[in-house]
Design a protein that fits this description.
Length: 197
């Protein structure tokens, strides 16, 4: 299974962002971007790629432990940015330290369960909205429109394990499909990042 750990925004946050994205679709050049779909909006915490079924019981146990050790925290969708002119995203504001800690714990849980993870990089919270089809698509109008976006604050109370099913039909514009295959309530508990997972 192709898996990642994630924070999923609640329906209200998705609706707020959806109204902003609908307006982005009306901007010149919007048709040149591949837009992500609302059911797929998420903050990836740790991307695991293909995970052997044999590793799943240990992975689930370690993610559950990471969630138990992490208290709920406040987050909101905020502003926008891009990666190399290729991906347009909205960011997060609120308790970013708690979000980073949860990402670190999810990454450590996967590594300790035996999942072959990519080289570790500092976590940067982003929710991908669109990808450029080629080089040099102008993202400036979209970034300007996202600049003042401030979503309503919500309480992150769950860590999710999500399966990504990549498009296989070859139909242009087909989106990946996501299915939550596990979720664990954030319960608090003490302790630092060491020994997480």
């Amino acid at each position: 299974m192709r898996l990642f750990a994630a924070v999923l925004p609640p329906a209200g946050a998705v609706a707020e962002l959806g109204a902003v994205v609908d307006a982005l679709h009306a901007l010149p050049g919007a048709g040149e971007l591949r837009w992500t779909s609302r059911p797929g909006w998420h903050f990836t915490l740790a991307f695991m790629g293909e995970v052997d079924d044999a590793l799943l019981p240990d992975l689930r146990a370690r993610l559950a432990r990471a969630a138990r050790r992490t208290p709920p925290f406040a987050l909101r969708l905020h502003g926008g940015g891009h990666f190399g002119g290729r991906a347009l995203w909205t960011g997060a504001a609120g308790d970013l330290d708690a979000l980073r800690l949860l990402a670190e714990r999810a990454d450590a849980a996967a590594r300790r369960a035996g999942v072959a993870m990519e080289e570790h990089r500092r976590y940067r919270a982003h929710l991908t909205l669109a990808r450029a089809r080629g080089e040099g698509e102008p993202l400036a109008p979209f970034l300007a429109a996202l600049d003042g976006f401030e979503g309503t604050r919500w309480r992150v109370g769950e860590l999710s394990l999500v399966r990504s099913n990549l498009p296989v039909s070859g139909v242009p514009g087909e989106q990946p499909r996501y299915a939550t295959v596990g979720s664990w309530r954030l319960e608090g508990g003490g302790g630092g990042a060491e020994g997480s997972g």
